[in-house]
Amino acid sequence: MIEDPAAAEVSLDPIRARLLAELSEPGSATMLAAKVGLPRQKVNYHLKTLEAHGLVEMIEERRKGNVNERIMRATAASYVISPAVLASVAPDPDRAPDQLSASWLLAVAVRLVRDMGALITGAAKARKRLATFAIDGEVRFASAADRAAFVQELSGAVTALVSKYHTENGRDHRIVVAVHPSMKEAS
Fold first, then answer.
1. Is the same domain home to 158 and 90?
2. Three-state secondary structure along the chain?
3. What CA dihedral angle connects 26, 32, 34 and 35, to 10 degrees?
4. Average pLDDT over every residue of 1-30
5. In-domain check, residue 50
6. What is the pLDDT of residue 91?
7. Which residues contact 142 (CB under 8 A, 6 or more apart)?
8. Do residues 24 and 94 share a domain?
9. Are 13 and 37 in contact (CB under 8 A)?
10. 128 shares a domain with 68
C-alpha cells in the first residue's frame, strides 16, 4: 500500500511502473535496459528514484568488470495507492449516503481500499493472518425491474444475516456488497 503522495507520484510514471513490474524478478539496470529498450543510465536514474521512495530495494551488489552491478527487486508483489494519499478530495460515504448513486459506491470502495491497506499493514507487522472474505461474481438481468427486485431481495437477506449474527460483544466487521455494471475485458 503506497501511502506517501510522493511515492504515489513516482509509481505512476509509465517507465517506473514498467520497471516495478519487471522487478517482480530481481534484475540490474543493464538487464532492465535490454527489456524496456532504454539506455542503462536512464534506467539507473529511475531505479534510484524508486529506491528513494522505498518501492525497490537492492538485494545484491556484484563486481562486473570495472563497475559494481546492483541487483534490485520490487519491495512488494503488487502496489495499491491508498485513497489516503488524496484524502482531502477522496469521496466519503458519510457525506452523501445515497445507496443508489455511483458516487456513494465509489466512496464505499475507497473506504474499503483504505481500510484493507491499514489492516494488511497491521497484520504484517504483527505477523498474523487477516480474516477476510469476499465474493465476486456476475449476474445478467433481463430488465431494470429484475435488477431492482434482486437488490431488494439481496438487501433483505443481508439484513437478516446481520440481525441474526450481530452481538454487542466481539469484534466489529464491515460488510460491503456492491452491484454495478460489469466492465468488458479488453481483448
1. yes
2. CECCHHHHHHHHCHHHHHHHHHCCCCECHHHHHHHHCCCHHHHHHHHHHHHHCCCEEEEEEEEECCEEEEEEEECCCCCCECHHHHCCCCCCCCCCCCCCCHHHHHHHHHHHHHHHHHHHHHHHHHCCCCCCCCCCCCCCCCCHHHHHHHHHHHHHHHHHHHHHHCCCCCCCCCCCCCCCCCCCCCC
3. 80
4. 90
5. yes
6. 60
7. none
8. no
9. no
10. no
| Structure confidence at residue 112 (pLDDT) | 86
User: CA-CA distance, 19 to 13, in Å (whole number)?
Assistant: 10
Backbone angles phi, psi at 38, to 5 degrees: -125, 160
Q: Mean pLDDT over all residues of the chain? A: 87
Question: Whole-model pTM?
Answer: 0.60
Whether 89 shows a pLDDT value over 60: the answer reads no
98 and 45 housed in the same domain: no
pLDDT, position 46: 95
Half-sphere exposure of 92 (CA within 13 A, CB side): 7
Judge contact between 28 and 72, C-beta under 8 A: yes
- State pLDDT tens for residues 25-59: 999 999 999 999 999 999 999 999 999 999 999 99
Number of compact structural domains in the chain: 2
CATH number of the domain where residue 49 is located: 1.10.10.10
Same domain, 123 and 70: no
137 inside domain? yes
Per the structure, the complete domain to which residue 112 belongs is given by 86-165
Q: For residue 27, is it within any domain?
A: yes
